[in-house]
Design a protein that fits this description.
Layout: H1 9-35, E1 38-42, E2 56-57, E3 63-71, E4 77-85, E5 93-98, E6 103-108, E7 110-113, E8 122-130, E9 139-143, E10 156-157, E11 168-177, H2 184-197, E12 201-206, H3 211-223, E13 226-230, H4 257-267, E14 272-277, E15 282-286, H5 292-302, E16 306-317, E17 343-344, E18 355-359, E19 364-367, E20 372-375, E21 378-381, E22 387-393, E23 406-407, H6 415-428
Parallel strand pairs: 11-12, 11-14, 12-13, 16-21, 16-22
Antiparallel strand pairs: 1-6, 2-3, 3-4, 4-8, 5-6, 5-9, 7-8, 9-10, 14-18, 15-22, 16-18, 17-23, 19-20
Helix pairs in contact: 2-6
């Protein structure tokens, strides 16, 4: 394009914009070409040991692989959920082995460190690689170099390769269970509430728990409700039980909770219509609908194109209880009886209540704990008169007297079914 001769300011501006656009397009085209998979080796078959653990460290001990997932929502890529040191990990490669020809393709990985790192040196990250055009690889290896021997690298199965019909409507993701968790009664009550409200699967990233809790988990596994993902993150990193580095200067925050949540979203992308992201002491409680299904149908009708629904968290302090539902057979079970805690803390001035979420996993790219970082489509804050997060825990406003709390017995709507179901679990687990 020629930009000489007499020109108006407008013509000059158009010329500059056009040239800038051409340079930008050329840059991204070259960058994409540099990321295209290249054949480096040929083999009679794909070798390398299959990685079976939930968390697999690479040789650099700065990169930890959780699981790869096929993602064709924008282009044909393998998206690997992992944990990386945000400063020290600069380059990674995906090694694909394509059958039946045995060709080894190596792709330059894009390392997308999640923005919600909260000051910790290690963070959740997406390691994203373009896949070979004429191959649908079933496994991938991750390496620091584009050269080497694939036989020496661990191989990871690429999940979500085949589309599946949605077998369940709601999956709850809980991360992470740690600290010899022993709040048995409240856990059972939460599980039974999730089932009453419509959950068919609860995925739990388990670091450790008490022996009694193991019995309860075994019951829910055999029932078909619980899926336990081992989460031995403290075998590899110094973990904090707080959310910010300034509170506890360790390698990664809150037992790698954000990484686990992202893995849970992708793990259930083809298996569940909705994914519920909350903790075991939290219940997204509908106030206008009997269950999650009718609530979500209404919310989707009112908010077309929305895939992220955020619910306001409200604290029901375990320090204040009512004499109602003091069930003697529950008194020997360790943990909190949520039916006795129906007083919630009032809102604090100039403090925004955090939110928990129900999401369409197909529309999530990256999630944090209280919001989705990247998504397709929009998010909506669900009004408190539609639903709230019932969160029974230690108080945040510990100095408040009972008369300053708000009596809210919404949970009692479900008391009959909840008591019956909890008693059944206690009987069958012989607690």
């Amino acid at each position: 394009m020629m930009c000489g001769g007499k020109k108006s300011y407008f013509a000059a501006a158009v010329c500059i914009i056009t040239l800038t656009s051409m340079v930008t397009v050329s840059y991204f085209r070259l960058q994409r070409l540099s990321n295209q998979p290249k054949v480096t080796q040929e083999s009679s078959k794909c070798r390398g040991k299959i990685a079976n653990g939930t968390i697999t460290p690479l040789k650099d001990n700065r990169t930890f692989i959780i699981s790869p997932y096929f993602d064709d929502r924008e282009s044909k890529v393998t998206r690997v959920i992992g944990i990386v040191h945000h400063k020290e990990v600069k380059q990674l490669y995906c090694w694909f082995c394509c059958q039946p020809d045995g060709k080894i393709y190596v792709s330059n990985a894009e390392i997308d460190v999640h923005s919600d790192r909260f000051g910790f040196p290690y963070s959740a990250a997406d390691i994203v690689c373009l896949e070979p055009e004429n191959c649908d690889p079933t496994h991938v290896s991750i390496h620091q170099s584009a050269h080497g021997n694939i036989d020496q690298l661990p191989r990871f199965e690429i999940k979500n390769r085949k589309p599946e019909p949605f077998p369940v409507d709601f999956t709850v993701c809980i991360s992470a269970m740690f600290g010899s968790y022993n709040n048995v009664l409240q856990f059972i009550q939460s599980m039974e509430m999730y089932k009453i409200l419509g959950a068919q699967r609860v995925v739990i990233y388990k670091n450790n728990c008490s022996h009694l809790m193991e019995k309860v988990l075994k019951f829910y596994i055999e029932e078909g409700t619980a899926e336990i993902i081992p989460w031995p993150i403290n075998s590899y990193l110094k973990v904090s039980s707080t959310w910010h580095f300034s509170m506890d200067a360790k390698d990664i925050g809150y037992y790698g909770q954000i990484t686990a949540l992202n893995d849970c979203v992708y793990r259930n992308m083809q298996r569940s219509r909705f994914v519920v992201l909350n903790d075991a002491d939290e219940i997204i409680l509908p106030l206008k609908h009997p269950n999650w299904k009718t609530m979500m149908s209404s919310l989707q009708e009112q908010n077309p194109g929305t895939g992220i629904f955020l619910f306001e968290n409200h604290i029901f302090p375990e320090t204040f209880s009512t004499y109602m539902f003091n069930i003697s057979s529950w008194n020997t079970v360790p943990g909190v009886n949520i039916l006795q805690h129906v007083h919630r803390e009032p809102d604090r001035k100039h403090v925004i209540n955090p939110r928990k979420m129900i999401v369409d996993p197909q529309k999530v790219i990256q999630t944090s704990v209280h919001s989705v970082l990247r998504a397709y489509g929009s998010s909506v804050n669900v009004p408190m008169d539609v639903a709230l997060v019932y969160h029974c825990r230690k108080p945040l406003q510990g100095d408040l007297p009972r008369e300053s709390l708000i009596r809210d017995t919404s949970l009692w709507t479900y008391n009959s079914s909840l008591i019956k179901n909890v008693n059944k679990v206690l009987f069958q687990t012989l607690l």
